[in-house]
Design brief:
Elements: E1 2-6, H1 11-21, E2 27-31, H2 43-49, E3 54-57, H3 71-84, E4 89-93, H4 99-107, E5 111-117, H5 126-134, E6 139-144, H6 149-156, H7 158-161, E7 169-172, H8 178-182, H9 184-187, E8 192-194, H10 206-212, E9 223-229, H11 237-247, E10 252-258, H12 262-271, E11 274-279, E12 293-294, H13 296-301, E13 306-310, E14 313-317, H14 319-325, H15 329-333, E15 339-343, H16 347-357, E16 362-367, H17 370-380, E17 383-386, E18 399-402, E19 427-430, H18 439-446, E20 450-452, H19 454-470
Parallel strand pairs: 1-2, 1-8, 2-3, 3-4, 4-5, 5-6, 6-7, 9-10, 9-11, 12-14, 15-16, 15-18, 16-17, 18-19, 19-20
Antiparallel strand pairs: 11-13, 13-14
Bound molecules: NADP nicotinamide-adenine-dinucleotide phosphate.
């Protein structure tokens, strides 16, 4: 079940939020602590206007909520509202000891969710905490904050350690917990909280959880795939793979994993049986020691962006290599590419240079740190120069490839080589995919150059990963970013 957290200031807004998301959810939680005080008397009208089970919660500030009044007042309000409205569950924190109030709740056949929050980490006695919370017949709820992959392993093992506790709620909060929310069924949680509002807890929207991840359909047979990186939550790869799995009717899910430690992630991959994963910054080199097999491209480039389970081994592949070169194939077929200038000498540049080199292209590498350009040039028998001398290379190549991050994020207005002039005959390729048209490409477009976009490389490398993951070609569907 997906549980929509209703945390607006007014009941009217909560009701609107409920109906906006009704198609995706199975239950909702009304957060009294978020409501304006004068709205509290209207709560019973909400219970009449929604058609799903409701959880009643009034979260104290110390537990991440907004309630600042006294404990006596909080219990009094909860009791009043329980008298008037129709609720299936009430969330009460683990340290609240009010036998009379609890007896009253039980007399109304409302189930108690007994919650424990940890905003600093994951307690080592996690399993015994859950068992204790469950011991009085309540539904235990644990909301903890994983900070490392080892914390994630503790959370993902809850289901196997405590399989006898059928009804439980397990949540990993914060950016690292996002994978535990998407995979809430693997964690053994009976529900996953969601919201359209970013409450800085790692909550995802009901539509994303339901339509993109199909999180509520995960079952014991679902194959898990993902992307590892740091940061990783901005990755658009889930938008490539999840709709692809769905289109070919493959029971699989592709999840972002924020990973601090690659070694620990390979352990997690065994714990939850991950079948394959994409690798992004900064782990493309760190994964190499764990590969039992790797392709020629991985060995040439010295980095790996795709790992798949093959028999009992992890196999490393570099789909950036073909993802980069495939959009250029028509120009190779028409013999338009003989000489190239490559701006940048980082990880992506290595895949670009080897792919061009293996097609017989004469390459000049321009980089801010000239020593790095020199080292890569020696390895690949290319020419090199400082990026500062870019103007010397105007009109001297058929292809210009931009591989630095200048032109994206905070540097969206930057042009990495403003002095490099275009004749209009060149093919200009920028690896940046957001924005689609970088300042660099905009200038090339104004000069009449042929443009190649980073998004084409991204989609191409993603489709090749999909083939490695599934053994099928990527289906002909529209990818929506
Ligand atoms: P990286 O290994 O960190 O390399 C960054 C390169 O950019 C280095 O050559 C670095 O020069 C240069 N650079 C960074 N900041 C600079 C600045 N302020 N001025 C001049 N040069 C600067 O990164 P990467 O993995 O190669 O990724 C680079 C870009 O490629 C990113 O934008 C990434 O999103 C994109 N990419 C796209 C795809 C795709 O599918 N479209 C795939 C992979 C990567 P120094 O050596 O002097 O530091």
């Amino acid at each position: 079940m997906l549980c929509l957290t209703l945390a607006k200031k007014t009941i009217e807004e909560d009701i609107a939020d409920f109906w906006k998301n009704r198609a995706y959810i199975g239950i909702a939680e009304i957060r009294l602590d978020a409501l304006d005080f004068k709205e509290l008397e209207k709560v019973s009208s909400l219970t009449n206007q929604v058609d799903l089970p409701l959880i009643l919660t009034c979260r104290r500030k110390a537990d991440g909520g907004f309630w600042m009044g006294t404990e006596k007042k909080r219990i009094q309000i909860l009791k009043q509202i329980l008298e008037l409205g129709d609720f299936s569950y009430i969330d009460i924190e683990s340290d609240v000891k009010r036998p009379e109030f609890e007896a009253f709740i039980k007399s109304k056949s409302i189930q108690i969710i007994r919650s424990f929050h940890d905003f600093e980490g994951v307690p080592l006695d996690l399993y015994s905490k859950i068992s204790k919370l469950a011991s009085k017949g309540d539904i235990p709820k644990i909301a903890v904050t994983p900070k490392t992959v080892s914390d994630l392993i503790l959370i993902f093992k809850v289901e196997s350690e405590l399989a006898s506790i059928k009804e439980k709620i397990i949540i990993g909060m914060g950016p690292m917990g996002v994978c535990t929310r998407i995979l809430y069924k693997k964690v053994g949680s009976m529900l996953c909280y969601c919201s359209d509002d970013d409450m800085n807890l790692g909550l995802l929207s009901p539509r994303i959880l339901s339509e993109l991840y199909r999180a509520d359909r995960v079952n014991a047979k679902t194959h898990i795939y993902g992307v590892i990186g740091n940061p990783v939550l901005q990755s658009v790869s889930p938008q490539i793979h999840n709709p692809g799995f769905h289109a070919i009717r493959f029971n699989a899910i592709y999840v972002p994993f924020l990973v601090d430690n690659v070694r620990a992630f390979f352990h997690l991959a065994e714990v939850i049986q991950i079948f394959g994963f994409s690798v992004t910054i900064p782990h493309k080199i760190d994964v190499l020691p764990y590969l039992g097999k790797s392709t020629r491209e991985v060995r040439l480039i010295g980095s790996c962006n795709t790992v798949v389970r093959k028999m009992n081994l992890w196999k490393g592949i570099n789909t950036d290599y073909y993802g980069f070169i495939n959009p250029l194939l028509p120009y190779f077929d028409s013999e338009q590419i003989h000489e190239a200038v490559v701006i940048g000498a980082g990880g992506a540049s290595r895949a670009v240079i080897w792919a061009l080199k293996n097609r017989g292209v004469k390459i000049t590498i321009l980089n801010r740190t000239v020593e790095k350009a020199k080292a890569l040039a020696l390895e690949t028998m290319s020419n090199y120069d400082s990026l500062e001398n870019a103007d010397k290379y105007s009109g001297r190549s058929d292809l210009i490839v931009q591989t630095t991050p200048l032109g994206m994020g905070e540097k969206v207005d930057f042009d990495p080589a403003p002095k490099l002039k275009f004749l209009g005959t060149e093919i200009v390729y920028d690896l940046i995919y957001k924005p689609h048209l970088t300042k660099f490409l905009e200038r090339a477009n104004d000069s009449g150059c042929i443009l190649c976009y980073g998004i084409d490389m991204l989609v191409e490398q993603g489709k090749l990963q999909f083939e490695e993951f599934t053994g099928y070609h990527y289906p002909s569907i529209n990818i929506v970013f």
